[in-house]
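Posting this for the archive.
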Amino acid sequence: MAEIARVETYSFTPAALRVGDRRPGISGFVRTRNGADFVAAAIRSHAAHVDEIVVVYNQCTDGTEAILAALQDELGPQKLRIVHYLPRVFPPGSDEHIAEPANSPHSVVNYSNFALACTTRQVAFKIDDDHVAMDGAFARMAADIHRDGLAPGRMACFSGINLARDDQGRVGVFAATPLAGNGDHGFFPVTPDAYFVHDRRYEDFRKRHFRRSFIGFAYWHLKYLKAGLGFANYEIAGGANRRFAKKQRDFHRRREVVTMAELAATMPRLRASLMRLLPFDKWALIGNRALAMADGAVTEADLAEVLARYGLGALHRSDQASGA
């Protein structure tokens, strides 16, 4: 029988992070709303490499709760802890989000901080419910953190590949925004300053308190393969989320996908080499990420393997795009 805690109200303060009580190890935390498409794959692909995963779910009507309960039976309640966050959370980008105070139970900022505060280990990282770990790469990263820890003040950032379907239903890299994780995903030490704050666009993690470095590509981002193409939770139809309404329109205008080789060929090697020398951690991170992709850090064979493993469909190829 699954152990699911339920929270009726909550207001975050930094003391809730309980920094002094944390044990060595790595915690992943997931926030999900109607994540049934990929939440099981996201959790399973990370679980073997970390000490615990905390999942906090909100406003789910698609069977997410039953999926999580079954996963907890499979992985055990020490590995996977589940919390039902009951207050309605306003979606990022919405008018309600913009107006809501960061410590309100209805703010996605407060909701995110609650999920982080539920973790118990000294190092944490955020897992989205559509992030499927790249097996070997993520395993190596987590093993390095377990062995060496993190240098004081360091955030070890990783990125992902955005996947989408072309007009024939084949899966490739989303050409308009091929890379996910621009310094906002990675392993960080939980400190009194490590939490989310309000931005009118979204919940913003306080990255400026860390020196960030790029450690590799770690996940496949399956947002655009979800039902609703990843926009279903933003409540766009009501007209109160103009930011994501625009993103949805832009997505439908530019749905081209490319191969991994085509993506690698577009990476600006010279500019990336210069960027990595700049004394700004974000620019160095972006430069190192571009060079890693240009050097084949993720290949077409890697993409084909994950499509086959999860039954995501046929692989888009460049000869298909040209009609050859």
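The two ends are 54 Å apart (CA to CA). The chain has eleven helices and 14 strands.
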